[in-house]
Amino acid sequence: MRVEPVDLAxxxxxxxxxxxxxxxxxxxxxxxxWILAAAGALMPPRASFAFRGDHGYFAAMRGVDPAGFPxxxxxxxxxxxxxxxxxxxxxxxxxxxVPLLAARRDWQLAILAGLTVSGPQxxxxxxxxxxxxxxxxGQPTTxxxxxxxxxIDGYLARRSRDPRKSLRRSLRAAAAAGIxxxxxxxxxxxxxxxxxxxxxxxxxxxxxxxxxxAGPMRAFYGAMLPRLCALGQQRTIFxxxxxxxxxxxxxAVMGGEYRGLQFSYDDDHGKLGLGGLLQYHQIGExxxxxVARYDLGTEMDYKRRWAEDIMETxxxxxxx
Length: 320
Fold this sequence. Notes:
The chain is an alpha+beta fold. Helix content is 38%, strand content 29%.
């Protein structure tokens, strides 16, 4: 059995290919663009604990808690969406990872996040982990997911009457106001992000300090966008009034699934229902290119109206 340490940034393309083949995980949030950006912008300083074996990767970091105990955790633990177990055969991968963990004496607590509840990775761990290691379960994390079967018409048919009525009203109002929608697949991440940030600065999110206009979240998206653009995964639509950007929706496509990331709009045009209109136009574009699913991200009330399915992952904490 071959298990060797790796620099995930240096082998990101191969790592992402394995992520795309891994069953029952949040693929986008386990891929290199997400986890490496989060590691640099959102997580505390840690040392790499990433390994490649014959059956995939263990993508983790090692740190020391202020209380003094050493720990292992996924590369991204800001939300706990990323799975550290990356491989198309979970049983074979876990059979490599557990002996690796057992042989290392430089940790007391290990956090394995992003595990689908009752999924193959969790079942393999339950069958393989030493009985002497204490196991604790974390609170499940829910993502809302919409099917894009049947195109935009099929999608709208699965929504209730009130959202459809509101959307029709917004479409009429936007048309009367001369609002245009521009789909952009930019190669230049800096130009794209400058446009996004100009809109963020005029939004309610900026005013209330919950957007991506400043601080770690601005750094996180600024670090992620260049790779998304380079891979052709980025999907952005801008709403425009004349020659002025007044709204945007940003996401990325991986393996036939779209992951929504952020959207915002200029407060001065809030009555137009730009949030719903941007979602509508993005879904239309995605259906046109054959994308099958739309992951709206983690739990928020409004997302329930836009999606019909959920994906749940949980955290397993090991103590020895």
